[in-house]
Amino acid sequence: MDTQATTEGYPSIGAMVEWDEDIGHSVYLRMSSTGFPRGLQAEKILSVFTNANGTRMFNIKFKDSPKVEQLAACEANKRIPHMVIEFYWDHLSLSPKSASGKP
Questions:
Q1: Global pTM?
Q2: Domain coordinates of the chain in residue numbers?
C-alpha cells in the first residue's frame, strides 16, 4: 500500500486514513478531494487535531465509505456546522471549581 505524509509525520490536507490489516494500524492515503465533492454525506466527526501548519483538522467518517477523511475545520464549519457543534459539545470538559470558588 502506497502512503504519503508531509513533514513530521503529519498527513497532508486531502489525505484519507485507512486501516491496514497487514501492519495493524492506520495509514494515510493521498486524495484530491473530500467526500463532499464526491456526493457523500458526513456521518460522524471522529477527532480533531492541529496539523504541522497550524490548521485545525477533523477526521470525518462519511456514509457509504470505509475511509476516514481529513477536512479543514473552516470547511467543516461551513458544510456541517451542526456536527461540529455536536462534536465540541460531546467533548467539552469543564474543570470543577474548588471549595474556595477558584479554579
A1: 0.61
A2: 7-91
pLDDT tens by residue, 50-99:
999 999 999 999 998 888 999 999 999 999 999 999 999 999 887 777 55
Q: In sequence order, what are the residues at sequence separation of 6 or more whose Cβ sits closer than 8 angstroms to the Cβ of residue 86?
A: 45
| Cα 74 to Cα 13: distance, rounded to the nearest angstrom | 12
Contact assessment for residue 71 and residue 57, using Cβ atoms and an 8 Å cutoff = yes
Domain 7-91, CATH among 3.40.50.1000, 3.40.50.300, 2.170.150.70, 2.40.50.40: 2.40.50.40
Q: How far apart are CA 59 and CA 78, in angstroms?
A: 16
For the cut 90, the answer to whether the pLDDT of residue 7 exceeds it is no
